């Protein structure tokens, strides 16, 4: 009986979790104030360059980092990524032009405006969050959710950009492979051949730059309640499947470039051997001529 009485007197007080915010629902987290008050607005992702120096951009109020988000003048929000993509929310044409002008001074390489990702964001606290047809539904237009949408749309835009680059590189490599298959020689000029090889060698560097597509956004570690929204967005834009396919294409291009380089070296060394043999023959002829002339 005494042991039963002692058991009833035991009180278990669980220790609080050391990781701040892990046990809280996302709706109760701080910084959940909407950054866009409209219930419906547009989202537009663009690949404007190959590299952006995000830290050097000034003249805009920074409201978030990782990814960097800035306020635009007329209620718009922009997310800027160092690999050349930007995502615009509720942005007017004047705001877009001003931002592009500021980015142009701190970017390198050329982007491509043909593969933009465009959608409409609907804010409805009663709807399930995620893609729905041509729209993305969220419960609150706070900065965390907009950062998450920007991450997915920017990655999708970068994949589209690199997919088109890979397709152009394959178009360049096909005639070269056909020349080798038919007569073992290149019909292209040396300068064009070197340009094609250089473009394909860049595939490996693009492959390394794309490695972050499959990484989870940093903000999910502190806000696991948004993992469902991210998973639905990632699945809708097919990021994983497209990234794996692109990996294979870029790896094939890299191997093709290596093969072409080795082939060029072989032909160059073969011509060098012929030139050496001709010099030896000329030298022998001169020696024989000198011997009989005396």
Read across the widest sheet, the strand sequence of neighbours is: 3-4-5-6-1-8-10-9
Please tally the β strands and state the result: 10
* Tally of separate helices: 7
Helix content: 40-55%
Low-confidence stretches: 10-31
What distance lies between the first and last C-alpha atoms, to the nearest angstrom?
132 Å
Radius of gyration: 30 Å
Mass-distribution shape = elongated
Mean pLDDT equals 78
> What profile does the largest beta sheet have?
8 strands, mixed
What is the ordering of alpha helices and beta strands?
HEEEEEEHEEEEHHHHH
> Which structural class is indicated by helix and strand composition?
alpha+beta
The fraction of residues assigned to DSSP E strands is 15-25%
In terms of topology, how is this protein built?
Layout: H1 2-9, E1 40-47, E2 51-52, E3 61-64, E4 68-71, E5 77-80, E6 85-89, H2 93-104, E7 107-108, E8 112-123, E9 130-132, E10 135-138, H3 143-183, H4 190-209, H5 219-222, H6 227-236, H7 239-293
Parallel strand pairs: 8-10
Antiparallel strand pairs: 1-6, 1-8, 2-7, 3-4, 4-5, 5-6, 9-10
